[in-house]
Specification:
With 464 residues, the chain is an all-alpha fold. It has helices spanning 11-19, 38-41, 44-63, 73-82, 87-114, 123-144, 150-161, 184-189, 196-228, 246-271, 296-301, 307-328, 344-366, 396-412, 423-449, and strands spanning 30-31, 244-245, 392-393, 451-453, 456-457, 462-463.
């Protein structure tokens, strides 16, 4: 039944074991010793895929006990908790694995960036990884509605309301020719509100549509890893070193990471139940209604920018900026290893961007209370806070001149530090950087000086 004959535990047999196994053949036969260190990859890529497999298995099992209708969805959640053997454990494991996958995919992308493993010849695979990050967020988001409780329905309501701000295609977006009956939000929900049609559409997307797309991208991602070569670094750059067999050195480490991840997820699912509030009620709005935690940073940005900027433009800039990184980074140093001294500028800018994102998530989760007012974590929400005072709008003429001066100075002054970059790469890099810094400056102006708009064209629904 099993090809290969007698196992002799020789280098040739070990290589054949890797090359002849459908799951292991994506590994190279040999690997550099330094890449075997736990602290190099942290096994984040493999753990992310393992969590996807856990979600697939538990998701299929949960489908036997779930009906995507407003009449039955919430009661099926209750049955899983009280009537189905191990039902609550399956739901817990599925819920926490989804959150864990979001976190590990983000951490995996951070690791790849910090080790410069996105550079030639891996630019395309980095872009595939960005697509997988977006798909991971969408998979978690579409699954958020399925329990059909208050938390789920209103989180999806907040999230999909951002879709109505899409330029041209959203009913509330700039330059729009759509109405609430035919815009992007209507397409997502199958109606004008979160109801039966939305539940069915999110169920199909969550269980069939998005997993199929994610699976295709994962296949391409793994294939390119094998074709592009592993980015494990040389211990001493420029010095040849003897590689080690992937089997058993790397495979053993992957097995250990798998076992540890399973143990942690099983224990966490036994000890901590997934949240389930009262049944969804469209006539009872929670205060505050918050998006899922990984999108609550965008909800916080709504305080400082118009909806189409916070919900469409800024996420689009983030995705475009991530994809552009390997194409605009000219530094040939530090590839395949943690080398801050060799990549100070790139790592500093990237770290600031990641820090900004998680700080916004922290603010949205733990410092925003009723009416989205600011409550410190130790303050009680029972204390009513008055609405914010009068805001300030800078004159459009002054604000426009300030924006022009900001971008011109930002493009011209640093040019001498990046003489080796072409004009196109330099312009893209600086525009991305200036936008990131501009978001931070606008947040500071709003929080410290109550400035709402720096530049405003209400006729075009364009307000910054």
């Amino acid at each position: 039944m099993f090809p290969g004959g007698m196992w002799k535990d020789t280098p040739r047999d070990r290589i054949q074991h890797i090359a002849g196994n459908v799951w292991l053949h994506i590994h190279p036969p040999k690997i550099r010793p330094h890449a075997l260190k736990w602290t190099y990859t942290w096994s984040l890529g493999g753990v992310s895929f393992l969590l996807f497999l856990i979600l697939t298995v538990t998701g299929v099992l949960l489908m036997f006990y779930y009906r995507p209708t407003v009449l039955h969805a919430y009661h099926d959640m209750k049955d899983l908790e009280f009537a189905v053997s191990f039902g609550i454990f399956l739901r817990n494991l599925h819920r926490w694995a989804a959150h864990a996958m979001v976190i590990t995919v983000i951490l995996h992308m951070m690791r790849v960036f910090l080790t410069a493993s996105y550079k030639t010849p891996r630019e395309f695979n980095w872009s595939v990884g960005v697509a997988l990050l977006v798909l991971t967020l969408l998979l978690s988001f579409t699954g958020y509605l399925l329990p059909w409780d208050q938390l789920a329905m209103w989180a999806i309501t907040v999230g999909t309301n951002m879709a109505s701000a899409v330029p041209f295609l959203g009913a509330e977006g700039p330059f729009s020719f759509a109405t609430i009956n035919n815009d992007v939000r209507f397409f997502l929900l199958g109606g004008t509100m979160v109801g039966e049609n939305a539940l069915l559409r999110f169920y199909v997307l969550h269980c069939i549509g998005l997993p199929l797309i994610a699976g295709i991208f994962m296949i391409v991602h793994f294939w390119r890893i094998r074709k592009d070569g592993f980015s494990g670094p040389l211990v001493s750059p420029g010095v040849q070193e003897e590689k080690k067999d992937t089997w058993p050195n790397l495979i053993n480490r992957e097995y250990v990471a798998t076992i540890v991840t399973l143990v942690v997820m099983i224990l966490w699912s036994i000890l901590v139940n997934a949240p389930l509030e009262e049944v969804a009620n469209p006539n009872r709005t929670p205060n505050p209604a918050k998006a899922p935690w990984y999108f609550v940073g965008l909800q916080e940005i709504l305080v400082y920018f118009d909806p189409w900027i916070a919900g469409v433009m800024i996420p689009g800039i983030i995705i475009f900026g991530l994809i552009a990184i390997p194409y605009i980074d000219p530094n040939p140093q530090g590839i395949g290893r943690y080398a801050f001294k060799e990549r100070k500028f790139a790592i500093t800018v990237y770290s600031i961007g990641i820090a900004m994102w998680f700080i916004l998530i922290f603010i949205g989760l733990w410092t925003r209370g009723p009416n989205w007012a600011w409550y410190w974590p130790w303050e009680s929400w029972d204390v009513h806070k008055p609405p914010p005072g009068k805001t300030i709008n800078i004159s459009s003429w002054i604000g426009g001149l300030l924006l022009i001066a900001y971008f011109i100075a930002g493009l011209i002054i640093p040019r001498r530090f990046f003489k080796n970059m072409g004009i196109v790469k330099y312009t893209v890099m600086m525009v991305m950087l200036l936008m990131m810094v501009g978001i931070l400056l606008k947040i500071v102006l709003c929080l410290a000086f109550d400035v709402k708009y720096i530049f405003s064209l209400p006729q075009l629904n364009f307000n910054i």
